[in-house]
Specification:
CATH topology of one domain: Neutral endopeptidase, domain 2
Oligomer: single chain
Shape: globular
Structural class: alpha/beta
CATH class of one domain: Mainly Alpha
CATH superfamily of one domain: Neutral endopeptidase , domain2
Number of helices: 28
Length: 690
């Protein structure tokens, strides 16, 4: 789901609600099952057909308050609190156990304690950074600079960020199967080098972006000053000027979403020819890639532009840039003033968050980031029963079957295209709860008194792990999320899905709840992730994960026309005065929402076995299904975060994802939605895609 963080519905079966134009009834014998809908959160003063999100969640939103240490709140926040509480219990157990050195439990304890010992961090000051900073200051020429840039290369392991690979290192590396070689693992080179979230933050003339650039420069000055670096203002000028030039060579989000434009195979020797400016031999040697001959360059213009800047810009500018970013990357485990300055800019200025999360919560987050599988094994042992996995497997099977039935019945798709679409469904790898194999951290040294070193060593360990996959057969069952992650993901290259354990819990998935609510909430997310294999990006890959056009010309034209209609629908949504969604930017997620919700709805009805759904709490099965979906997306967020999401995210903000219902025919009779109401779409204007 994110691809964005999952928003989960609260389960309250207290008061009755009668939507306009819909039947009422006494609670049936099935009321022993949870209704799965927050009846108290509904605003009955709003017509469902005018604003379904406000109808479903308006009463909740009127009372909801965003905590000072958050930039948004919603039902996703509620389920995250549950996962957080589970993680706290795990950490407490690990600390009490006093595990032997060399065990994962000891690594967890030492990492956590090193992060949490702020007094020791304060006493050490900038001492942990001195060797790095001295090495940067000691660079003598561009060859040495190239070697350092190569040594700093790190692996981007976030599949959710697959269209926006910015990294504080000059380039990023992504390791997965090749676009044209689905049986072989290859390295992808990615654009990077920016401290701000996206190229438009540097290049846009919008007043809010101009303001942020000024605030970013102020932050650079402050960070360098606190770190005791000389001439902070002069360095900040050079850093911002350099990053602006780097940003000018970056491609935008829409271009990065096009896998065909990303499929650029380069040999190692091509880099010196096509992207002069860097000493590539020195770069590859330091990066541990001297023996690698084949690469895929996702954004070639950005690689060329960055290399040219290495050659043309002063060594001093690059030393300034390296100095700032090496400090900025580990600000959270440097003295409190530096940590606070980092928070003030990246969390408050960019996202509106008023205060940091408690230090112990941040420590657990850090453990989960860098020792994720070690924590994950403990998480599933205590918090993911086998019965939940069995239930979700059955639900996935039903939704896959519903999607397959829908594809088989498509009248506009030719048999050849339909055959490959159905093959994708049949061969999809679905991981539920946790991976079949766990990551080993045996080679990672964690010290209880060296949080900066722990971060650096963990980065390198992850990088070595990723490099170790290159050239080897592809593991189609590889997980890209940890079990304690409240999220889900589709992996187009693997034709695979991951549904971590932490998302598969009440109130999002409740084995005691009515099927309508479970299918409307977690079922819609399952359908969403399945449907990503058939969105505007996933549809470019065949059942093996190979990038190829498996569509007939006519079928592709029909698919693209439906996508264009959905993009236009979302481009008409005004998020804030004068700020509209970019329908093309969020198209993939919206295709997955429409198709996924449709598949979940049809799977829900198939699960009834031909019987009529019970009426519970005065709500029909269809009403509970759609309300559970909408409430799973309810949220309240700060304006700064909302603006940032619109600018950089491939997802529509949650409120507008709830509007997906207007494209499903079944939603209209469920809530008696009539022409003239704001969300009403004539049947021929409803976008079905699949």
């Amino acid at each position: 789901m994110k691809h964005s963080t999952i928003l989960l519905a609260a389960l309250l079966a207290t008061t009755a609600c009668t939507p306009a134009g819909t039947p009422t009834a006494n609670i049936s014998a099935e009321a022993g099952k949870g209704i799965g809908v927050d009846l108290a959160g509904i605003d009955k003063n709003v017509k469902p057909g005018d604003d379904f999100d406000e109808y479903a969640s308006g009463a909740w939103r009127a009372k909801a308050e965003i905590p000072a240490d958050r930039s948004s709140v919603g039902t996703g926040y509620d389920v995250s609190l549950k996962a957080d509480a589970n993680n706290v219990a795990i950490i407490q157990g690990v600390l009490k156990a006093n595990a032997a050195p060399g065990t994962d439990e000891r690594r967890i304890a030492d990492w956590y304690n090193s992060y949490l010992d702020v007094n020791a961090i304060e006493k050490r000051g900038m001492a942990p950074m001195q060797a790095e900073l001295a090495a940067i200051a000691g660079l003598k020429d561009k060859s040495a600079l190239s070697a350092m840039l190569g040594a700093n290369l790190r692996a981007d392991v976030d599949p959710l960020n697959a269209t926006n690979f910015e990294t504080e290192n000059l380039f990023g590396l992504f390791v997965s199967q090749g676009f044209d070689t689905p049986d072989t693992t290859v390295p992808y080179m990615l654009q990077g080098g920016l401290g701000l979230p996206d190229r438009d933050y540097y290049l846009s003339s919008k007043p809010e972006m101009v303001t942020i650039r000024g605030q970013y420069k102020d932050y650079i000055v402050k960070l360098l000053t606190l770190a005791g670096i000389s001439d902070p203002a002069g360095r900040a000028d050079r850093i911002l000027a350099l990053e602006t030039k780097i940003a000018a060579s970056h491609v935008d989000i829409l271009t990065s979403q096009d896998a065909h434009k990303a499929n650029n195979g380069w040999k190692k020797e091509d880099f010196a020819k096509k992207a002069p400016g860097i000493d590539w031999n020195a770069f590859w040697t330091s990066a541990g890639l001297a023996g690698q001959n084949d690469f895929i360059v996702w954004q070639p213009g950005a690689v060329v532009g960055a290399a040219q800047l290495v050659g043309s810009e002063s060594l001093q500018s690059w030393q300034d840039w390296l100095t700032f970013h090496r400090i900025n990357e580990v600000a959270e485990v440097l003295p409190a003033a530096i940590d606070q300055a980092h928070f003030d800019f990246f969390s408050t200025t960019l996202n509106g968050q008023q205060k940091p999360r408690p230090r112990d919560a941040r420590a657990i987050n850090s453990v989960n980031t860098w020792l994720g599988d070690a924590m994950g094994q403990l998480y599933v042992k205590d918090y993911f029963p086998a019965s939940s996995k069995t239930d979700i497997q059955a639900m996935v099977k039903n939704i896959l079957a519903a999607f397959d039935t829908r594809v088989a019945a498509l009248t506009w798709m030719t048999p050849a295209t339909k055959e490959e679409a159905r093959r994708k469904i049949a061969t999809m790898q679905v991981g539920i709860g946790y991976p079949e194999t766990w990551r080993s951290y045996a080679g990672l040294e964690v010290k209880a008194d060296d949080p900066v070193g722990n971060l650096r060593r963990a980065e390198k360990a992850e990088y070595r792990h990723q490099l170790g996959k290159i050239g080897k057969p592809v593991d189609k069952k590889e997980w890209w999320m940890t079990p304690q992650t409240v999220n889900a993901v589709n992996l187009p290259l693997q034709n695979a899905l991951n549904f971590p354990a932490a998302i598969l819990q009440a109130p999002y998935y409740d084995p005691a709840a009515d099927a309508a609510a479970n299918y409307g909430s977690v079922g819609a997310i399952i359908g969403h992730e399945i449907s990503h294999s058939f969105d505007n990006l996933g549809a470019d890959f065949d059942s093996s994960g190979k990038l190829r056009n498996w569509w007939t010309k006519e079928d592709l034209a029909h698919f693209e026309a439906a996508g264009a209609a959905l993009a236009a629908q979302y481009s008409a949504y005004e998020v804030l005065p004068g700020l509209f969604l970019n329908g093309k930017q969020v198209l993939g997620e919206n295709i997955a929402d429409v198709a996924g919700l449709t598949a979940a709805y049809e799977a829900y009805h198939a699960s009834l076995g031909g019987k009529e759904a019970p009426v519970i709490g005065g709500l029909t099965g269809d009403q509970r299904f759609f309300l559970a979906f909408a409430q799973s997306w309810r949220s309240k967020q700060r304006e700064q975060q909302l603006r940032a999401r619109v600018a950089t995210d491939g997802h529509a903000p949650a409120r507008w994802r709830a509007m997906t219902v207007r494209n499903l025919d079944a939603w209209y009779p469920a809530f008696n939605v009539q022409p003239g109401q704001k969300l009403y779409l004539a049947p021929d204007k409803r976008v079905h895609v699949w």
